[in-house]
Design goal:
Low-confidence stretches: none
Order of helices and strands: HHHHEEEHEHEEHEHEEHE
Radius of gyration: 21 Å
Strand order of the largest sheet: 5-4-3-2-6-1-7-8-9-10
Number of helices: 9
Number of strands: 10
Strand content: 15-25%
CATH architecture of the largest domain: Roll
CATH topology of the largest domain: Hypothetical protein YwqG fold
Largest sheet: 10 strands, antiparallel
Shape: globular
Length: 320
């Protein structure tokens, strides 16, 4: 049987990127061709999309692509759920606004100050992501709230209720948790629809002992994750990716060792077999711009033992 045309084109593209002259030609097309569709096709070859996390063999081929250049590094790639702002999305995933009702009332700190709703994400069976985290719920909605002030370095931050992660099976978009009257306009923004994309994620370059070249290549890999999920693997017109997007059950953008050191003082592990799982890394950009400082992040961590029990009330938040 004749190979599919797409497979033939992929092989031609892979051969082309081994030839420096061909690479220079591609880059010229990306930068200067007057036809946008031609520019986009050339860009997809010159900056190849991260493969979907269905096949480790596809990932290995991508890492070995000379325009990626990450072959041989111990990266421990992990599948993760990216949340991409999309005005055309019609599901149950969105930033800000009023969340789907699941709590009896709007969550507040211990002193009565209402928390800010950052994000809610529709869950489901996500294939490789669900297999890696079998305790992750495969139905319902995960909601993230924060007071935008708690740093997460003191036990009192948790006692005072500086954040909340809530899992609800409630899926009726007609029933929303009404905004409280004392939540100011500075702490409430209109809903921003979003879609979910399962993708490979990679550790922060700060977590690895890399030379300057490998450090730059791994940073570029993070950018290609953004390009990939923004364009939905070419389903959408390839546009400039956002500065960052939330990632759930994945590698985060910041140094993991620093997070472990901070968590050790406030969220002790149950036993030596327990560990920390990065539940969500939510950057303060896009719909959340200005809420977490200049390009800051809110990380929500949970212990393995609490994830197994799906006890999301035990999650701990760190401002990074």
């Amino acid at each position: 049987m004749e190979p599919r045309l797409v497979d033939q084109l992929n092989r031609l593209a892979e051969a082309a990127v081994h030839d420096p002259a061909q690479v220079r030609t591609l880059q010229q097309i990306v930068e200067h061709d007057q036809d946008r569709s031609v520019r986009e096709r050339a860009r997809q070859v010159a900056r190849p999309f991260v493969p979907r996390p269905d096949s480790e063999a596809d990932l290995e081929r991508w890492l070995n692509n000379p325009l990626v250049g990450l072959a041989g590094l111990d990266l421990n790639p992990q599948p993760g759920l990216a949340v991409v702002p999309d005005p055309d999305a019609e599901g149950l995933t969105w930033f800000c606004g009023e969340p789907v009702a699941g709590l009896p009332e709007w969550p507040r700190r211990a002193d009565g100050i209402p928390l800010v709703h950052l994000l809610q994400v529709r869950l489901g069976d996500r294939g490789p992501l669900s297999r890696r985290h079998p305790a992750m719920p495969t139905e319902g909605i995960l909601q993230f709230f924060h007071d935008l002030e708690a740093i997460g370095d003191e036990p009192a931050d948790g006692v005072n209720g500086g954040w909340l992660v809530h899992h609800t099976l409630h899926g009726d978009t007609a029933t929303l948790l009404p905004r409280p009257d004392d939540l100011t306009d500075d702490e409430f923004r209109d809903r921003c629809p979003a879609r979910e994309e399962v993708t490979w994620t990679f550790p922060s370059p700060l977590d690895l002992d890399l030379d300057d070249r490998a450090f730059e290549l791994l940073e570029a890999a993070h950018e290609r994750v953004l390009e990939t999920v923004t364009s939905a693997w070419g389903t959408y017109d390839l546009e400039e990716p956002p500065d960052d997007v939330p990632l759930l059950f994945a590698h985060g953008a910041e140094e993991r060792l620093i997070a472990y050191q901070r968590l050790a003082d406030v969220l002790s592990l149950a036993d030596r077999d327990d560990n920390y799982v990065l539940l969500a890394d939510i950057p303060g950009v896009g719909p959340l711009d200005g809420w977490v400082g200049d390009m800051g992040h809110i990380e929500y961590w949970i212990r393995d033992s609490d994830l197994t029990k799906q006890d999301f009330a035990q999650a701990w938040a760190l401002l990074r």
